[in-house]
């Protein structure tokens, strides 16, 4: 917007007025008495005129634009308060609070909500507010109450079909199809990548069961698993030895303590160019290779917020050519939804023991 305004006729007027104000300000330093008072009044008059000209330049620029981009709350900007739009598109509506969405909606003659209510919902810091309905988005309510107005985009252009099929069957009634350009793409299709049992598979499951890699809890209640982090580190080293370059690999974990631990280990090995983030921090992103550290491994078979199905949907579907899950199949598999994930990888992935990496 600043660039557009700067290039407009109004922007040229604003620049000239600022030059005039600078000249007056320089002159003020040389004056005394009533002349100085008059110069200050001239400067104040110019300042008042400048605010008017700046606002007019912005409004004129907005009127000349076919498309205006803003955040939901940004649509409440003072320059847009009287604007109406033929069409408003709210992107990532599945992650937007309903109250936020209504800000641009009230300016619309026609509305399009775009998003995925089967991926992560908005972040709500109050459990009480979430339970009372704040977490439920306008997008989700429209999908459920007015299904006839919704349209599912069925072709995806990111993932190998084996990565996609688990998500499609568990979330989208098997309606998602891969575009031919990505359907069978693998790491071996990239330049100078060695062919082997890892690079020729879209899916790998590294099972930590029986390896005594138990989870720990930090003072803030977040979970980590040092043994599992070591497995991730060794797996990354293998991938790099196969020819994978920088920017191709990312590690995702549902727990911030595990993210922090893996980052620390990577720094020690001078591999801190590998991106590591939580599931929430990686939504909307993608990498050729995604490694998912599940963390949970305990005798009580507790999985915590791994139970949040949508979080796992996001994690798996960040991968383009290769997805590796590292976890304890006995702990993770005790939750029915995650048991489906373990079974799918058992049927379709290269299934390895963590002992091979320790």
Automatic annotation (TrEMBL):
This is AAA+ ATPase domain-containing protein. InterPro entries: Coronavir_polyprotein_1ab, DNA2/NAM7-like_C, DNA2/NAM7_AAA_11, P-loop_NTPase, SF1_C_Upf1, SMUBP-2/Hcs1-like. The keyword Repeat does not apply. Keywords: ATP-binding, Helicase, Hydrolase, Nucleotide-binding. Belongs to the DNA2/NAM7 helicase family. One of its GO terms (molecular function) is ATP binding. Gene3D superfamilies: P-loop containing nucleotide triphosphate hydrolases. Residues 134-329 form the DNA2/NAM7 helicase-like C-terminal domain. Pfam families: AAA_11, AAA_12. GO terms for cellular component: chromosome. SUPFAM superfamilies: P-loop containing nucleoside triphosphate hydrolases (SSF52540). Residues 22-126 form the DNA2/NAM7 helicase helicase domain. The keyword Hydrolase applies.
